[in-house]
């Protein structure tokens, strides 16, 4: 099929290029450096330097430590990009690089955290030092973390580094830098900084602290009131005032014997407004940083609601870890491009260190009953390395209790009494019995009480049936709590 004929006018229309920034009526294209368009900082008249001060807040640093521990709660793995010789050689070079220190007095976890906190500052930049030849391969001598304040973006969203010769910023060599951004937009190449969302809560919180301290000084200690008789001289009144002042500071005072002293104690009730303001500001900062508040505010809540909040925080951490794998993969891609013409660079991926997701196991198992599922897909999904030829395999006998065992369980014992209700052919309790046990689960304060209530109702129930029906009742309670939590504003 021949290409369509284009007229000169049509050809010019296809060749015409439009630049979003250069056609902006705000005229930012007249400048090399595009100012950070963060609306919060612009209205407050602050720069991104305020982020460091916000990060030192006691509540914020507690949340950051939680984020850091969450990042390292997962295993990271380096996998080859392909099976060809170039890809495998690149993989070996990458393993040797990751086994060494990135820079003097620096560990890889320090560089990882530097790129992870792009969520706090909007973006993070890492510098690749001069390349040196080692074992017939060119690798960077150092991997350094640079502060975000040393960089800017131009109107074409290109990264600029600020130097002495070019304080407004100069273009970078992409082979010497990596850059990861958090939620960048067409009008904001700097990304969205979570610490920016913490600015006003942080500001009002510390303003509330000032008045809260004044409140404690004013009403936190008893208020002494001295009484003097009419016609008392000013000198004697001054001595009385001085004695009351010593009473506040020293705990003892000497006053004229013809004067009287009353102690008025504060009778405040309820939570002070200043404390409510501080707690509210802490709550808002928790929502911005971790998307949950139950763990930090220590408020009462159902177990299912707290689990839902924790799940949402975990999902955010999984997404944020992509920033860490992103900068490492940029680094590995650069090293591969410098040393090889073909092949694929290795990949840096995260593996969940926690227990296997039972929901994923069930999905794989049920899917394999309907459609063919490859073993490689199962290994990759579960994060389990495929055994190599000659490796000793682990053998575990199926005791009928594992997650891969048949789901059918005997609900009742073979020797059940006449007082045990009859169940259907699938060995499941009837709806009425499930509802009755569900009520037991809601009313029970602990598992022992739940077990005793079920045994009182069904004295001849078998242990396996007891475990099965208790699990179903607890699952129903958890699902109900999660439904209630999802309807709440987080």
From TrEMBL:
InterPro entries: Portal_Mu. Pfam families: Portal_Mu. This is Portal protein. It comes from Pseudoalteromonas luteoviolacea DSM 6061.
């Amino acid at each position: 099929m021949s290409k369509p004929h284009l007229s000169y006018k049509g050809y010019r229309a296809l060749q015409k290029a439009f630049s979003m920034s250069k056609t902006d009526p705000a005229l930012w294209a007249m400048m090399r450096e595009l100012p950070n368009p963060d609306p919060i900082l612009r209205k407050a008249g602050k720069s991104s330097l305020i982020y460091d001060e916000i990060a030192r807040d006691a509540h914020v640093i507690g949340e950051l430590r939680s984020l850091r521990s969450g990042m390292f709660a997962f295993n990271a793995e380096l996998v080859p990009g392909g099976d060809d010789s170039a890809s495998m050689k690149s993989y070996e070079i990458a393993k040797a690089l990751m086994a060494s220190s990135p820079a003097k007095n620096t560990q890889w976890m320090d560089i990882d955290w530097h790129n992870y906190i792009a969520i706090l500052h909007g973006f993070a930049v890492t510098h690749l030092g001069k390349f040196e030849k080692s074992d017939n391969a060119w690798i960077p001598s150092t991997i350094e973390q640079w502060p975000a304040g040393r960089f800017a973006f131009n109107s074409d969203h290109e990264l600029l580094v600020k130097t002495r010769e070019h304080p407004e910023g100069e273009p970078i060599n992409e082979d010497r830098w990596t850059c990861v951004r958090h939620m960048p937009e067409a009008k904001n190449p700097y990304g969205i900084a979570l610490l920016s969302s913490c600015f006003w809560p942080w500001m009002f919180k510390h303003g509330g602290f000032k008045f809260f301290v004044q409140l404690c000084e004013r009403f936190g200690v008893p208020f002494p009131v001295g009484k003097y008789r009419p016609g008392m001289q000013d000198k004697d009144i001054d001595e009385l005032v001085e004695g009351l002042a010593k009473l506040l500071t020293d705990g003892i005072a000497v006053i004229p014997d013809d004067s009287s002293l009353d102690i008025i104690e504060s009778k405040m009730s309820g939570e002070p407004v200043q404390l409510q303001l501080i707690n509210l500001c802490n709550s808002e900062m928790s929502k911005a940083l971790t998307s949950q508040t139950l763990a930090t505010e220590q408020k009462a809540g159902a177990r299912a609601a707290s689990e839902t909040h924790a799940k949402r925080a975990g999902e955010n951490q999984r997404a944020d870890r992509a920033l860490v794998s992103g900068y490492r993969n940029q680094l590995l891609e650069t090293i591969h491009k410098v040393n090889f013409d073909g092949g694929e660079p290795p990949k840096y991926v995260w593996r969940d260190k926690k227990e296997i997701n039972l929901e994923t196991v069930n999905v794989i198992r049920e899917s394999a009953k309907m459609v063919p599922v490859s073993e490689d897909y199962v290994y990759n999904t579960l994060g389990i390395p495929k055994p190599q030829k000659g490796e000793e395999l682990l053998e575990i006998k199926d005791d009928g209790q594992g997650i891969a065992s048949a789901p059918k369980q005997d609900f009742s014992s073979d020797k059940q009494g006449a007082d045990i209700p009859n169940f259907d052919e699938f060995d499941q309790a009837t709806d009425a019995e499930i509802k009755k046990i569900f009520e037991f689960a809601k009313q029970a304060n602990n598992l022992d009480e739940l077990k005793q209530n079920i045994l009182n109702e069904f004295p001849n129930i078998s242990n396996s049936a007891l475990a099965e029906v208790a699990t179903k009742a607890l699952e129903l309670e958890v699902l109900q709590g999660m439904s209630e939590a999802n309807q709440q504003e987080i």
